[in-house]
Amino acid sequence: MTDEASVADASADGDVAAVASSSTDMSNLVLGDLTVDRGGRPVVHDVSLEVPPGEITTLLGPNGAGKSSLAAAIAGLARVRSGSVSLGGNDITSWRPERVRHAGVSVVPEGRRLLTDLTVADNMRVATYSLDEEAAEDGIAYTRSLFPELERRWDSFGRLLSGGEQQMVVLAQALVSRPKVLVVDELSLGLAPIVVKRLTPVLAEVADSGVAVLLIEQFAQVALAMATKAYVLEGGRIRYDGSATELINQPDVLHSAYLLQD
Ligand SMILES: Nc1ncnc2c1ncn2[C@@H]1O[C@H](COP(=O)(O)OP(=O)(O)OP(=O)(O)O)[C@@H](O)[C@H]1O
Ligand SMILES: [Mg+2]
């Protein structure tokens, strides 16, 4: 396992950001034989996967498979027992969450909500607090272009927004720093299919612009339609690793892992 202190000594945040922006390949997120602990026991075992820039990769798996634990490990929020997380060849295993974010990896945890007693504008201000003025302005303009319907909601309190609009703000908060990697844990949870349909083209646009997108979902349909590569996690282990299109044609895998909705 990586010694966090030695990594911290070896490279300052700024160095990594500079290296990582030098080429699109440098935004490749790679997990190597990753084992993640939750509550003191391993719940994700030896998982290797790659999230390349410019496309959507999906991680599917039934309830309790370990998907959110994996996302938490990428974000620096869960303990990595062994294996590695790397970004563009730089080892970022066990980095503190804010350092992971600063290196360009933005993770939307499962069930993330906006602050409903604040306006959309204030929610976005919260998300840009660590950016300098120019980066914040640029990021806000970018997210407004991705979600033009938020424009008329800008001064509304979060609690007055629809579920879909709230999810847009959450995505906008994750994208405002213009990350190299975007990890979204259960985008579609609790949202009507029509709302999900509005959000998916935005993720496709984000991927097209060169971002490495990892979409974590419990159910397969929406994610597989968008993704290039797919992984299925079951009992903390990778059960399928291949093209999304090929997985669509393997209903036995999808059925036995409870990845199809009625
Ligand atoms: N904070 C925690 N403390 C202890 N155990 C946990 C914790 N979080 C998750 N677990 C356990 O880790 C395992 C994996 O859970 P995880 O939430 O990662 O799965 P998941 O694939 O995201 O499931 P879901 O589809 O329900 O979101 C489960 O057995 C769960 O009970
Ligand atoms: Mg989960």
Structural commentary:
It is globular and about 45 Å long. Strand 9 and strand 10 (237-243) form a beta hairpin. The longest helix has 16 residues, at 193-208. The protein has one domain: 3-Layer(aba) Sandwich (Rossmann fold), CATH 3.40.50.300. It has 11 helices and 10 strands. With 262 residues, it is an alpha/beta fold. Residues 1-24 have low confidence and may be disordered. Helix 5 (120-127) runs parallel beside helix 7 (163-175). The strands form 2 sheets. The chain has a 6-stranded mixed beta sheet, sandwiched between helices. The structure holds adenosine-5'-triphosphate and magnesium ion. Adenosine-5'-triphosphate binds next to helix 3.
Main beta sheet strand tally, sense and closure = 6 strands, mixed
Q: Give the overall average pLDDT.
A: 89
Order of helices and strands: HHEEEHEEHEHHHEHEHEEHH
* CATH level-two architecture: 3-Layer(aba) Sandwich
Name the strands of the widest sheet in spatial order: 6-7-8-3-9-10
Approximate helicity band: 25-40%
Q: In terms of quaternary structure, what is this?
A: single chain
Cα separation of the termini? 42 Å
Unreliable spans: 1-24
Class per helix and strand makeup: alpha/beta
Instruction: State the CATH class.
Output: Alpha Beta
Question: Can you tell me the CATH superfamily?
Answer: P-loop containing nucleotide triphosphate hydrolases
Q: Bin the strand percentage.
A: 15-25%
The CATH topology turns out to be Rossmann fold
**Which ligands accompany this protein?**
adenosine-5'-triphosphate, magnesium ion
E-strand count: 10
Shape by Cα distribution: globular
